[in-house]
Design goal:
Blueprint: E1 3-8, H1 20-23, H2 28-42, E2 45-50, H3 54-67, E3 70-74, H4 83-90, E4 96-100, E5 122-125, H5 129-146
Parallel strand pairs: 1-2, 1-3, 3-4, 4-5
The protein binds 1,3,4-trihydroxy-5-OXO-cyclohexanecarboxylic acid (DQA).
1,3,4-trihydroxy-5-OXO-cyclohexanecarboxylic acid is lined by residues 11, 74, 76-77, 79, 100-102, 104, 111.
């Protein structure tokens, strides 16, 4: 089964209690379990990780590059300013789907810029936990089309 990394940036470990009016009440552990189950249903092996550390997140993207694995990435606040993260994303050869729980385009102005979108295969935002389910479906479709 194809391997997909679902990588998450800062503060997403606080899901469930973090601004639930914006991010919902699903905890990070519940989200991770949902991604694994969604992946299984789609014929994908899913590894879910979260870090508050930019360097660690970049290291995981290098790992995905080495594995030739697809990535579903919620870069969280790094979305808006981390050129180092963008450069790591640009090295990936397999599909990269950027996901967001909220719709950053409908929020504060600093969230309207994503430095990642330009090197992603596509972006899914604003559907809560469904953004991840849709992201995994997009990866499954892209891999199937590439066969
Ligand atoms: C987020 C949106 C970002 O603007 C924010 O910094 C996050 C979460 C989302 O999933 O909606 O941490 O990526």
């Amino acid at each position: 089964m194809p391997h997909v990394y679902v990588l998450n940036g800062p503060n997403l470990n606080r899901l469930g209690t973090r601004e639930p009016d914006i991010y919902g009440s699903t905890t990070f552990d519940e989200l991770a379990a949902d991604c694994v189950a969604t992946g299984q249903a789609l014929g994908l092996t899913v590894t879910v990780r979260q870090t508050n550390d930019e360097s660690e997140l970049i290291g995981w993207l290098h790992e995905a590059q080495d594995d030739g694995a697809a990535v579903v990435l919620n870069p969280a606040a790094f979305t808006h300013y981390s050129y180092a993260l963008r450069d790591a994303c640009a090295m990936l050869s397999a599909p990269l789907v950027e996901v967001h729980l909220s719709n950053p385009a409908a929020r504060e102005e600093f969230r309207h810029t994503s430095v990642v979108s330009g090197v992603a295969t596509g972006t899914i935002a604003g559907f809560g936990v469904d953004s991840y389910r849709l992201g995994l479906r997009a990866v499954a479709a892209l891999l199937a089309n590439a066969e």
